[in-house]
Amino acid sequence: MSRQLYAEYTTEKYDPIKPRVLTALSESLVKADLRDLHFIQMNQVHGMEKKMFPYAPDILMSHGGQKVGVFVFNDDAVMRDSSQVCGFAAGKMRLVEQAHALAGKKGTSVLKSVGLPVQRVVNVDLAEFKLQLRSDFSLGDFLDTCGLGVSSDSVDTSLLSGFSRRLTERAAANYRSTSASFEEFLLQLLTLMQRREKLDTVFEPEQVMAAIDELKLQMLKLVA
Amino acid sequence: MLKAGYILPDEQIISSDMQIGTLGMDAAVEVFYDLVLNFYPNALSPQYDSYYSAAVENLPKSPSVEDRFTKMNLHTLSSTLIGLEHQAMSHRRDIVDNEYPSEFFEKVAMPEEDFLRRMDGAMARDQKEEMRKTLSTHVRMERTYLKAWRTFMDRTRNVPSLIDKMLKKECTRNDLFTSLRALNACRFEAKELRDKISRKFVNGAVQTCDEQSLVDGAVGLAGCSYKPRHAAEMTEHLLKSLQKRPQHMRTSYRGDRRAKVIDNLTFAQSTELLKALSTPGFASGEMEVCIRDLLSQLAHINFDMIGNELTFQEFENLYDAYTNLKFSDVAELRKLWADMF
């Protein structure tokens, strides 16, 4: 890549704080054994293709039934008085969302990008060798303030089985992002269930029918 | 000049001189003289002063032009801050190397220089000279932790209140455009102040803006997520001004092909403007004409050796603009990308 011809690109590599913040966030998410685990592992394996995505978020996770790309920024990309990301960095985040939408992968939910300033996670004074975790920082709360909290029209899916829960959540996320009619949406769900049935014989026909009924009920609640 | 990166061709020689403490002004003067001789020879012409005096003698002198740089007004403050931010974020090493937060980080980031210092007495002079040539000419640590940036951030804490005071005086549209970019440079969102600036812009007299101020205005509007209340009017004025005939060409050179302001921007201004106009969140279908003009100009340049012909910042601007257009949420701009690349 042409960028590598420049000394500016190859020399400025040492960041004493950001990699540590990223590692801490990823490890704590994995160790917390949340539902997010599935998404993190999936994206770590597949990665985001450079051809389709010009920039990649630092962390990929799920929150409130949405796929979230977390961009961790240093001081130069953040407004100091409001902690909001500057226009150019926000543009890059929007670009990733748009590229994700243009890629049009089937079964891929909409990606929502959020910018997280390093200074919101830690207090740093390198001259005095001080590095302190901010006690008022909570990733969940931060994502909620970015408008990614569980929305009012969502339902409790904890009583569903793992497969039905994941399918319902992902399908609901897709339904919000498309203009398909409700009938088409249910048809898509049924097709998914049938495909799954062919691939995996674990489910009995009665279980599949019960799951479909359950899904229909949950979907009705969603659009009510 | 070292910090700004103007002396790239001879920097290895300068670097070795710098290490033994003989750089001083002599080496800088020598490189500057070579640079001027190679790229701007007419500046060394003995008749230059006479030419310049003859050229400016009959120009109409407006008070605003005379005052612009002679006392601290909003434009002077804003453009100074923009320049300082550029220097604070420079990748180049400082000439006296006092930029890392502490000696510890200097050693971590540049272990080979620490090694060289420790082995100073054990190496032959030519060995040391050879090794010095391989040392990095750029900083090796995230720039936001370096002293230059920390100092800049510390000393610019009061910028919004200063700009607010200066807004009470008479301001031109050039000043207001540049002040928006200055707020970005100091990393202030300052919503109320931006609203105030945009209100003053709309309520003030209609004036012609110069090229640099238009670029500053575009960067100022695109570089902040918050859109001031009258951002739409400011953007409209900006786009119209870019398509106008330049002020200095209105009375002469009527047949000149490069008859629009946008055609007379420097290359660095063009790349900055292109990036700003294509930034998602600021870009719209109305910008298509300007972006097309900029891309047409760039297409005529035909770069061969990117690393030699573009600075890193220009390359980054162009790359960002390319990706902005490719994945733009504005269909017209995506189509433009497909047409032009």
Distinctive features:
heterodimer, A: 224 residues, alpha+beta, two-stranded antiparallel sheet, 12% strand, elongated, B: 341 residues, mainly alpha
Describe, in plain words, how this protein is organized in 3D:
- The complex is a heterodimer of chains A (224) and B (341).
- Chain A has 224 residues and is of the alpha+beta class.
- Chain A has 2 domains: 2-148, no CATH class; 162-223.
- Helices cover 51% and strands 12% of the residues of chain A.
- Chain A has helices at 7-11, 18-31, 36-46, 87-103, 118-121, 139-148, 162-177, 182-199, 205-223, and strands spanning 59-63, 66-73, 111-117, 122-125, 130-133.
- In chain A, strands 1-2-3 form a 3-stranded mixed beta sheet, with helices on both faces.
- The longest helix of chain A is centred in the last third of the chain and has 19 residues, at 205-223.
- Chain A is elongated.
- The mean pLDDT of chain A is 74.
- With 341 residues, chain B is mainly alpha-helical.
- Chain B is 58% helix and 0% strand.
- Chain B is built from 19 helices and no strands.
- Chain B has helices spanning 11-19, 24-39, 48-57, 63-67, 74-88, 103-109, 111-118, 125-133, 147-155, 159-166, 173-185, 191-203, 211-222, 231-242, 267-278, 288-299, 306-309, 312-326, 331-340.
- In chain B, helix 6 (103-109) crosses helix 7 and helix 15 packs parallel to helix 18 (312-326).
- The longest helix of chain B has 16 residues, at 24-39.
- The two termini of chain B are 35 Å apart.
- The relative contact order of chain B is 0.07.
